[in-house]
TetR/AcrR family transcriptional regulator (Levilactobacillus lanxiensis), 172 residues
Amino acid sequence: MTKLPYHRENLAAAIQQQARQQLETAGAEQLSLRQIARFLAVTPAAVYRHFPDKASLLAALRTEITAELTATLRENVLDSADATTMLQHMVSNLLTYADQHPQAVAFVLTAPLPAPVSLTTVLTLYATQQGQTTVTPQTGRTVWTFLVGVLVQYPQDQVIVNWVVTAITHLL
């Protein structure tokens, strides 16, 4: 085993990466800054210099996962000009992400999660294409709450994208 230098560049990133791995395998409750220090072969004080406590590390992870979830939601959405197809892509992306990262999704859902702007944009486009009035911020939050509920309540292998999209269109 090669000995790692005491002062390492990007230690904060390495800590966050290891914390994310712990979160993905065991959940946020099992996350341990001391275990991270042992795994990275640094002193606990080195970890605490970057993240003074578990809460600050969890806050950084929440920010990272929320950004990742938001980016995933937007993937391939603009491949079509049809809002229904866009909505199907968003729902499919969200369900795939939840299937691949169940612990991350469970962790992120422990705090309020604002409706992504991209979802509200696609909902507004859908309403316009259907000749409906514009989508209010409350409607965007309602649809987001429904999607979050789907993630929490249904096993991923039982959720059908078209069913979710149909339910969303009824909410509009």
In short: The chain has nine helices and no strands.
